[in-house]
Amino acid sequence: MKTLVLNWQQQALSFWQQRAPRERRALQILGAVLLGALLVQLAWSLASSRHKLLRQMPELAATAEQSDRLYEAWQQLSAANAARPLPRPEVLRQAVEQRLGELGPKLVARWNGNGELQLEGRTDFARWLTWTAAMQQENRLLLQRVRLQPGGDGVVVDAVFAFAATAP
């Protein structure tokens, strides 16, 4: 590598010495113009990027503020849910089983030995979302694993739920 660099330097020096003084002067001016153009382009790009970022600052600040408010609201909800006592598992199961019919007749539900609810079958997607949200809010039934695939008359569901007290 070192010999390659030395070889290149010797060739450049030889090239420079073979040029007439007027030609050297023209090459120096051309080099200075190119260097100046590169510096102007760099300064232009930096100024343009700075201007763009300055325009985005208010939007980013508003987004950060909104994120902070959402986090505070989430903390308050978490504290409220933690303060609310969790009913006995039998009571929760009974409440969930009463509402399983809302998902339609093509959905099969079974309770695993570890207290998890497994749902398999077809249902309407809007019903699925509404039911899942209601179960989480009312009974703290949390979605652990889900696979949804489009079906002819809705979605094919393969999901596992667990109560908040037993969820990992």
Report on the architecture of this protein.
- There is one protein chain.
- This protein is an alpha+beta fold.
- It has two domains: 2-81; 89-163, Gyrase A, domain 2, CATH 3.30.1360.
- 62% of the residues lie in helices and 20% in strands.
- The chain is built from four helices and four strands; from the N terminus they run H-H-H-E-E-H-E-E.
- It has helices at residues 2-17, 21-83, 89-99, 125-139, and strands at 107-111, 117-123, 141-151, 154-163.
- It has a four-stranded antiparallel β-sheet with strand order 1-2-4-3, covered by helices on one side.
- A hairpin with a 5-residue loop joins strand 1 and strand 2 (117-123).
- The two termini are 58 Å apart.
- The mean pLDDT is 85.
Note the gap between the termini.
Answer: 58 Å
- Rounded to the nearest angstrom, the radius of gyration is 35 Å
Main sheet?
4 strands, antiparallel
Give the neighbour order of strands across the main sheet: 1-2-4-3
Parts with pLDDT < 50 across at least 5 consecutive residues: none
Nearest-integer average pLDDT: 85
- What is the 3D shape? elongated
Structural class: alpha+beta
Order of helices and strands: HHHEEHEE
Helix content: 55-70%
Number of helices: 4
Number of strands: 4
Tell me the β content: 15-25%
How many domains, as an integer? 2
